[in-house]
Design a protein that fits this description.
Blueprint (H helix, E strand, L loop, with lengths): L7 E3 L4 E6 L4 E6 L6 E7 L9 H8 L9 E3 L5 E8 L13 H6 L9 H10 L13 E3 L23 E7 L3 E6 L14 E6 L6
Antiparallel strand pairs: 1-10, 2-9, 3-8, 3-10, 4-7, 4-9, 5-6, 6-8
The structure holds zinc ion.
Length: 204
């Protein structure tokens, strides 16, 4: 299994991108608790194929996904599957936080670029532009819905220090991953995110 020594750290309010091969497992860890990580995934052989919130939630007939659930692409192929989840509450409705988020919702006059800007910067290395960034799978983000009115709340994450969610790649992928930059999503403080990759080829 992935050893503790091999955890990568994403600094608070930043992001990264990397590739996975089919069969690789990605573990996203909340090392301190109450910290969100936005995840996006693209087919490495054709970056026009990307994870789709709409298709995934439609096929699941639920908005809260957990162990066993697939993440579908805009072409209805499974790109990732959740294979372990110690929290059971994540969001797949809301777009990555951005300078516009901070301007419109928080009223910031000199806004941070947010997860969106961090993803755009990291994914640029793979030829992926900002307009190709979809609704992210927001690991650990806690978004309760009022069933009667549809009102959306961004509540503190349910994750505690050391909680994790594990994804298995069902095809070769480009992944973007952040330590979320929005105060409300992270119960008022910015913390790092850890991740580890278990290579399928290495376990043969
Ligand atoms: Zn964010």
């Amino acid at each position: 299994m992935a050893a503790e020594c091999c955890h990568h750290e994403i600094a608070p309010r930043s992001g990264t991108a990397f590739t996975l091969d089919r069969g690789d497992r990605l573990t996203v860890i909340d090392p301190r608790g109450e910290q969100v990580a936005d995840l996006v995934a693209y087919n490495r052989d054709d970056i026009g194929e990307v994870i789709s919130s709409g298709r995934t939630l439609d096929y699941a007939s639920r908005i809260y996904l957990t162990t066993g659930d697939p993440l579908y692409s805009n072409r209805s192929n499974v790109l990732l599957r959740i294979v372990e989840d110690t929290v059971g509450r994540h969001d797949f409705l809301l777009t990555p936080c951005s300078a516009d988020t901070f301007r419109i919702i928080y009223g910031d006059t000199d806004p941070h670029r947010g997860c969106f800007g961090n993803l755009a910067a990291a994914l640029e290395l793979y030829g992926i532009g900002p307009d190709a960034i979809p609704v992210a799978f927001n690991c650990f983000m806690n978004v309760p819905i009022d069933a009667a009115t549809g009102a959306i709340t961004v509540a503190p994450p349910l994750s505690r220090a050391g909680d994790r969610i594990v994804f298995e790649a069902e095809t070769d992928l480009i992944i973007g991953l952040t330590a979320c930059s929005a105060l409300q999503s992270n119960n008022g403080s910015f913390k790092p995110i850890h991740y580890a990759i278990e290579r399928a080829a290495a376990s043969l």
